[in-house]
Amino acid sequence: MVRKAALHLFAAAAVLAGGIAPALSHPHVIVTGKSEVVFGKDGAVAAVRHAWTFDEMFSEYATQGLDKNKDGVLSRDELAELAKVNVESLKEFEYFTTGKSGPGKLEFAEPTDYYLEHKDKLLTLHFTLPVKKGSQKGGLSLDVFDPTYFVAFNLAEENPVKLIDAPANCAFEVKRPKQDATQTPTESFFNSLTAASDYGSQFANRVIVTCK
Prior knowledge:
The protein contains five helices and twelve strands. The chain is α+β, with helices and mostly antiparallel strands. The protein has one domain (about 5-210). Strands 1, 2, 5, 6, 7, 9 and 10 form a seven-stranded mixed sheet that branches.
């Protein structure tokens, strides 16, 4: 049986924190992300699709023992349990995704179409967040960050965002964090943070979509 604690790439990464991570400073996991903003027929945002690629060290750690047929390739089926546990653990942190449309906050339904792929030694988690409530015509802002800063999210340099089925007058802007993360507090400080903390927001990657 796959070790449950090792499967929680986000919320329950205590095994890694107790093993490899202490030799490192925060953050312990680096994610390079790409996002797709999906519009419905009414011109409002219907869903957000994420593709999060983990750093090589963490990818190697998280996939230990998952190559069941020993063919040197990690198939989607072999990664299915890992994907399921990761998506379930994301709920506590609201999927590290905060969206606003107009004056209100977006509410997301549980993820769909989730899976993991392993390519060039890197693990990538794909999932879709349907918008349950709050989306309005005119666009939205989307922040992706870990409030505890255990995970550092960076939008990809090339093609970080795509607009899917967007009205012709829609465009997006990417705002990357200006905060310098080279000087960070002690590990005891980070150990006190929870999903309700706001520390990681200063390192948020923001996508602003406007439709005129």
